[in-house]
């Protein structure tokens, strides 16, 4: 797959959202490609990797969740932001569990979208240059992003600080945190730290 580091893909069946985001990213010097449905988008995203993807959670045909699964989003080399309305929070949470980088709630401000996208692109570059290297019982149950969140938690970062480092919202950190605790059987952050630091013990 070739990389297209100046491109942003926008996948939304709402023309007003596509136009607004296109203008915003064009002004920032990105090359914007827009898609009105999931099928054409999945074909393009399978051939060339953009800098970032903006994906509406509600799509005609394939849903945003189905698109994430088709792309194997957890291992996709560009951050995928889910665009969701306020009533879509449970769906947005499901999207994060399926590999979305973060979600952006409508209505959004141009400034906050740009900031989140820049953070997401930078976080993805950093992730690609580091391997994390954590070892403990249950490490293989966690996704790459969950391991990154876990490292921040065990280093003592708050949800806000972890979000800043990883280029995601504190709410998204909470989603990952709950999932990590569920997978590792930890009831609180202290137990999580014990599990990770007690990696030498047999479980």
From TrEMBL:
One of its GO terms (biological process) is phosphorelay signal transduction system. This is Transcriptional regulatory protein TdiR. It comes from the Bacteria. One of its GO terms (molecular function) is DNA binding. Signal peptide: none annotated. Gene3D superfamilies: 3.40.50.2300, Winged helix-like DNA-binding domain superfamily/Winged helix DNA-binding domain. CDD domains: LuxR_C_like (cd06170). Keywords: DNA-binding, Phosphoprotein, Transcription, Transcription regulation. The keyword Transmembrane helix does not apply. The modification 4-aspartylphosphate is found at residue 56. Pfam families: GerE, Response_reg. It comes from Roseibium alexandrii. Residues 7-121 form the Response regulatory domain. Residues 135-200 form the HTH luxR-type domain. The keyword Phosphoprotein applies.
């Amino acid at each position: 797959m070739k990389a297209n580091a100046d491109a942003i893909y926008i996948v939304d069946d709402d023309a007003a959202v596509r136009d607004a985001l296109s203008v915003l990213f064009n002004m920032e010097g990105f090359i914007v490609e827009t898609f009105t449905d999931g099928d054409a988008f999945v074909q393009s995203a399978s051939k060339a990797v953009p800098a970032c993807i903006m994906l509406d959670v509600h799509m005609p045909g394939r849903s945003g969740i189905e698109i994430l699964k088709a792309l194997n989003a957890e291992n996709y080399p560009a951050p995928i932001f889910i665009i969701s309305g306020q009533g879509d929070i449970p769906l947005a949470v499901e999207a994060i569990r399926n590999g979305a980088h973060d979600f952006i709630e409508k209505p959004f401000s141009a400034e906050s979208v740009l900031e989140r996208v820049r953070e997401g692109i930078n976080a993805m570059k950093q992730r690609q240059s580091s391997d994390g290297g954590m070892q403990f019982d249950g490490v293989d149950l966690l996704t790459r992003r969950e391991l990154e969140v876990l490292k921040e938690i065990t280093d003592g970062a708050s949800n806000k600080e972890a979000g800043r480092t990883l280029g995601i919202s504190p709410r998204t950190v909470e989603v990952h945190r709950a999932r990590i605790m569920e997978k590792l059987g930890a009831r609180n952050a202290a137990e999580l730290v014990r599990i990770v630091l007690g990696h030498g013990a047999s479980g």
